[in-house]
């Protein structure tokens, strides 16, 4: 049973997406947590010291997709 699910989708420039990922990575490295804001409320989730990282790359004729999943 899910307690909470936050799903967001943005249209960003490549540089903006990279900046978002850097901020997420910094949060993981420095604060051992991730933070999301939804409907004016901040949700912080502690991240375990050991995580599983899954990377998936799909290349198709009309689009490409890179998925990064971190679970613990």
The helix-and-strand class reads: alpha+beta
Uncertain segments: none
The major beta sheet can be summarized as:
2 strands, antiparallel
Mean pLDDT: 93
Global shape:
globular
- Counted up, domains total 1
What order do the helices and strands follow?
HEEEE
Distance between the termini: 16 Å
- The percent range for helix content is 25-40%
The proportion of strand residues reads 35-45%
Number of strands: 4
What is the overall number of helices?
1
Radius of gyration from CA coordinates? 14 Å
| Strand order, largest beta sheet | 1-2
Descriptive tags:
alpha+beta; 72 residues; two-stranded antiparallel ribbon; 4 strands
Walk me through what this model shows:
- The structure is a single chain.
- With 72 residues, the protein is of the alpha+beta class.
- The protein has one domain.
- Helices cover 25% and strands 39% of the residues.
- It is built from 1 helix and 4 strands; from the N terminus they run αββββ.
- A two-stranded antiparallel ribbon has the order 1-2.
- The longest helix has 18 residues, at 14-31.
- The two termini are 16 Å apart.
- The mean pLDDT is 93.
Outline of the structure:
The protein has one helix at residues 14-31, and strands at 33-38, 41-46, 52-59, 64-71. The chain has one domain (14-71).
What's the helix and strand layout?
Elements: H1 14-31, E1 33-38, E2 41-46, E3 52-59, E4 64-71
Antiparallel strand pairs: 1-2, 3-4
